[in-house]
Amino acid sequence: MGSITLHKVEKWFGELQVIKGVDLEIGDGEFVIFVGPSGCGKSTLLRLISGLEEASHGQVFINGEDVTSRLPSERKLSMVFQSYALYPHMSVGENMGFGLKTAGAPRAEIRQKVAEAARILKLEDYLDRKPKALSGGQRQRVAIGRAITREPVGFLFDEPLSNLDAALRVEMRFEIAKLHETLGTTMIYVTHDQVEAMTLADKIVVLDFGVIKQVGTPRDLYEKPDNLFVAQFIGSPK
Ligand code: ADP
Ligand code: MG
């Protein structure tokens, strides 16, 4: 289960209001994309969901439970960043199991969950290597693997592919779509790449200056944009 609800969420940094009263419903298992121009608040909204930032006003619910003041570790969500943030001195397997280890999971359980994640991500042959001996795409898979072993109720991706070259981006996009199919877990994915948004999303949330301009399927946004901003941003002929 991984439904996420935002109720009148606001975020202020001092005098600057970055998120301006956002209401949003994300259903269990949905693949939701946040798009919008640079600086519009995509990362901040994701961080408010993960708990890395606390809302100034409003509430965040996960599976109907109010988690607004809970720490990230209490929200059962896994965040995948663009800067892979792997531990260089640990092997791939150790990196993938690290979250479980710090949570005190037994070794046998860690080994089993790492093996399962490695199978899904085709990293079985790389478990003993160090991150520096991997390609960019493989490293990004390890970061995703680390998120999987924690068995989150939702994955949060913040522009995970923006450091990769174009060909690898297309390949990883396909892999993330497959991962969603395999796991069926709720995913929220931030990108400024319209193609990524249109191909991955069940639902796209278009943001501008901390306000939701429209929520809809890729087709809705393309065929029936609510306003000129969405039409221009999505690149619809209207
Ligand atoms: P996006 O991810 O869409 O590019 P962000 O959520 O990173 O946008 O940022 C939205 C706005 O909030 C920007 O104007 C940014 O400068 C500001 N901002 C983000 N984090 C902070 C912070 N910790 N302190 C002050 N301003 C911030
Ligand atoms: Mg951002």
TrEMBL record:
**Where in the cell does this protein reside?**
Cell inner membrane
Which residues does the UniProt record annotate as the domain ABC transporter?
4-234
Query: Quick check: keyword Amino-acid biosynthesis in the entry?
Result: no
Per UniProt, the keywords (alphabetical) are: ATP-binding, Nucleotide-binding, Transport
Bilayer topology term: Peripheral membrane protein
**GO CC terms for this protein?**
ATP-binding cassette (ABC) transporter complex, substrate-binding subunit-containing; maltose transport complex
Please provide, alphabetically and separated by semicolons, the GO molecular function terms listed in this UniProt record.
Answer: ABC-type maltose transporter activity; ATP binding; ATP hydrolysis activity
Question: Of which family is this protein a member?
Answer: Belongs to the ABC transporter superfamily.
Task: Spell out the protein name for this chain.
Answer: ABC transporter ATP-binding protein
Q: Which organism is it from?
A: Oceaniradius stylonematis
Which residues of the parent chain are present?
Answer: 1 to 238 of 350
